[in-house]
């Protein structure tokens, strides 16, 4: 495990990785690891609580020397910690509106999933089962390195899918799930399956190594400008905490301007432009019935909240609750952070009470 220290902006600018710039000078993307660090630190400087910025060594999960970028708050708390898993094309910086509130009552860890953001960028397996196992193995290696016994997992979009996959593999390490607009639950709908041209176009794109965020890299130095105008649904949500409206656009550009790694892993587990190869609803019965689940959806999201209701029916007798935030999009954590944070904390408090009650029952039985 290695730590990073905060540096003044001038020092960051002065120590920018020249080799990276020179190596990519001929490329259109112009990715800079030092610039990403600077932009991320600007975002995280809005946090009120002190935080630790660390790189956790997880060994040979996918590559030869993988490290997972981690932001940690309130590590001294004795309550069950919560791990935050972001969605596709995101990173720890986009949780800045949520970190303080979630860390108010417990240890809180946000990571750049291996292959994204400032974490290592290894090459994932092309086989869907193998790639999913690699994602899960990296999360488990991170947990072991951090010395956490059990944790709650909050996953957004793709992060929700991986949270469930991890829970299936390591149920004893998960005390509860909070799934925010989770991707990957539903099967490819018949209307998509019937359109043969979609399958042809998708296969062609894969053969050409065209990934979900290739368009960001193709836009090169204009990407941040385009994102600041085309993705105001995200960038505008941070206007009150960042000094420049371009900061979030720069962050989105830089986390996705790198050589695709996590994207390749994501492409391995999906088909037909975004539908899961192994839908989570088909495996939901493999999640330990004692593990509580909370779904949080945005009413205006492209994700169908039917998956939450179906899960509730399939897990009859288990704790499953579904929350919907009115007028929220897929990025509900940024649209209405106060409401979102309240739902997350209430879920954690509910899980705490359930665990405490179960512990008391166990103690009584042991005494008898």
What does this structure look like?
One of its GO terms (molecular function) is lysophosphatidic acid acyltransferase activity. With 368 residues, the protein is an alpha/beta fold. It has one domain: Rossmann fold. 42% of the residues lie in helices and 15% in strands. The chain contains 16 helices and eleven strands. It has helices spanning 9-14, 18-23, 33-44, 99-102, 128-146, 158-169, 190-193, 196-207, 214-218, 223-230, 232-235, 246-256, 262-268, 306-314, 332-335, 337-367, and strands at 2-3, 51-59, 66-73, 82-85, 108-111, 151-156, 174-180, 270-271, 275-276, 293-298, 320-325. The strands form two sheets. Strands 1-2-3-5-4-6-7-10-11 form a nine-stranded mixed beta sheet, with helices on both faces. Helix 6 (158-169) links the parallel strand 6 (151-156) and strand 7. It is globular, with a radius of gyration of 20 Å.
CATH architecture: 3-Layer(aba) Sandwich
Report the average pLDDT across residues: 85
- State the helix count: 16
Number of strands: 11
Write down the CATH topology.
Answer: Rossmann fold
Q: Please report which band the strand proportion falls in: under 5%, 5-15%, 15-25%, 25-35%, 35-45% or over 45%.
A: 15-25%
CATH class: Alpha Beta
Query: In oligomeric terms, what are we looking at?
Result: single chain
Q: Any idea what the radius of gyration is?
A: 20 Å
Q: What overall geometry do the principal axes of the alpha carbons give?
A: globular
Number of spatially distinct domains: 1
Low-confidence stretches: 1-26
The largest beta-sheet arranges its strands as 1-2-3-5-4-6-7-10-11
Helix- and strand-based class? alpha/beta
Strand-and-helix sequence, N→C?
EHHHEEEHEHEHEHHHHHHHEEEHEHH
Spatial separation of the terminal alpha carbons: 45 Å
Report the CATH superfamily.
Answer: Alpha/Beta hydrolase fold, catalytic domain
